[in-house]
Amino acid sequence: MKAKQLIGSLIAASLIVSSVYAVNIEVDETQLGLRKVDLYTEDTAVPDGTNYNKEAPGTSKRFDRAYTNAPPMIPHDISELGEIDKNNNACLGCHMPDVAKTMGATPIPKTHFTSFRPNVEVDSDDNVKAESDDQIIKKDLHGKLWQGRYSCTQCHAPQTKGNLKVNNTFKPDYTDKKGQKHKNKSYLLDELNIGVQVGNGL
Ligand code: HEC
Ligand code: HEC
After folding, report:
1. What is the pLDDT of residues 164-178, one digit of tens each?
2. How many angstroms does the Cα of residue 20 sit away from the middle of ligand 1?
3. CA dihedral over 173, 175, 177, 182, signed as positive or negative
């Protein structure tokens, strides 16, 4: 047998073997999903449950921020703090800048005391027109919390320590030295136009 023929028959033989082998492998349907139970019903699917930090404020360890200027996760227990509404918010008692230092809490940043919403005018045809389409609106509210921010847990969340089926492997890539330096501290107000100025020359 010539070398070419030999190689040819070896390939053919291995194809036959592998196809027979492939037919013989049976994967049970319950093994297909990440949760390893019957895929046609939720009845036996039991989630791991949430397991939030129980440490009281003042005793917890801050989480690393996911990326520059990400809203920090809440590291401490908030279950006893009651509901948040626009007139009643226990978070402010420790996080308002005038008290935060004595409480050892991170002060609420300047962005939360700034309104970024343009004033709008409604004309006689009910068209809504913003005061400016091509500028970043930034109104300093002089220490008054902007009401678009009153519901803290809309953006800041506690973190559950679960058994993740798929781990998050995201690693932030800091675009500049300043971002690297501010890894765990917000500097958003100074950097609002980042990208805008460079991007389209506004
Ligand atoms: C009794 C005071 C107190 C109250 C009330 C409180 N916090 Fe905190 N918070 C702290 C302290 C102190 C820290 C720093 C971590 C620690 O020591 O536990 C902190 C840390 C945080 C952080 C992380 C900041 C960072 O730099 O990573 C966030 C976010 C946060 N709190 C949000 C909230 C929210 C939202 C509420 C209301 C639901 C709230 N806190 C209520 C005292 C408080
Ligand atoms: C609309 C989303 C949103 C809401 C609502 C919100 N935050 Fe934030 N928060 C952010 C983001 C985004 C950042 C990081 C960038 C920045 O500083 O604005 C942040 C940053 C922070 C920081 C870290 C400041 C620093 O210097 O590192 C604290 C503390 C904080 N927020 C507390 C609060 C509290 C308390 C409330 C409720 C009164 C609240 N936030 C409501 C989005 C929000």
Report:
1. 888 889 988 877 777
2. 61
3. negative
